[in-house]
Amino acid sequence: MGYLYLFVAIISEVIATNLLKATDGFSKLLPSVECLIAYIVCFYSLSKAIKYMPLNVAYALWGAIGIILITIFSVIYWKEQINTPTIIGIGFIVIGTILVNTFGTGH
């Protein structure tokens, strides 16, 4: 059940973060309201996920998967550039997440 809540938290965080760019500094009402709702869903779901799984595992997965998805979305949808150091940094995040999940004391 924890992974289902975590999945909802990740997806809603990715949606909210992309909407955050669309709010134009919270100057556009509809994207601003949608963004805030998505963040509420995100943090509610994350709070439910950590009832079923260790905080360090949930947060590592939430952060890593969120960063990867937001980066992909920003390149495809927002047409933002990505460079080699960014890709290397994301690789380190993935490696760190694998280490936390594999060797973390929460399992």
N-end to C-end Cα span = 15 Å
The proportion of residues in beta strands is: under 5%
| Rounded radius of gyration (Å) | 15 Å
As an assembly, this protein is single chain
User: What overall geometry do the principal axes of the alpha carbons give?
Assistant: flat
* Helix and strand composition category: mainly alpha
Number of domains as seen in the coordinates: 1
Main sheet summary:
none
Number of strands: 0
Task: List unreliable stretches of 5+ residues.
Answer: none
Description:
The protein has 107 residues and is an all-alpha fold. Helices cover 79% and strands 0% of the residues. The protein has one domain. The protein has helices at 2-22, 29-49, 55-76, 84-103. Helix 1 (2-22) packs antiparallel against helix 2 (29-49), helix 1 (2-22) runs parallel beside helix 3 (55-76) and helix 3 runs antiparallel to helix 4. The mean pLDDT is 94.
Q: TL;DR?
A:
With 107 residues, the chain is an all-alpha fold.
Secondary structure layout plus pairing:
Blueprint: H1 2-22, H2 29-49, H3 55-76, H4 84-103
Helix pairs in contact: 1-2, 1-3, 3-4
Subcellular location: Cell membrane
Family: Belongs to the drug/metabolite transporter (DMT) superfamily. Small multidrug resistance (SMR) (TC 2.A.7.1) family.
Membrane topology: Multi-pass membrane protein
Attribute tags:
107 residues; mainly alpha; 4 helices; 0% strand; transmembrane helix; Small_multidrug_res
